[in-house]
Request: fold
Amino acid sequence: MSPLSWYQLVAALLLGIGLYGVVSRKTLIGMLIGVELMINGAGLSMVSAAQLTPMDGVLGQLGALFVMGLAAAEATLVLAIVLVVARRMGNARSDTVSELKG
Reply:
């Protein structure tokens, strides 16, 4: 098995663990952690494909920087939303958000 296959397998494992975390968690923070795992799996897949194939490695590094920026922006927005929900509802569970009025 080639090194690229191992990296892609780890990336798929991160994606699966993240998807399981999003589906099984009831708190918004737990869902955020699952989404971050999925984004990290995508970044690992891009970087490994760029470094271990004839493609230019700089493109993989630029893709990884884009993924990291996207993850930082997503985490900032979601944490702000969780903070507002926690202050208004008293907890940050996903079932309280689905029962909002108005």
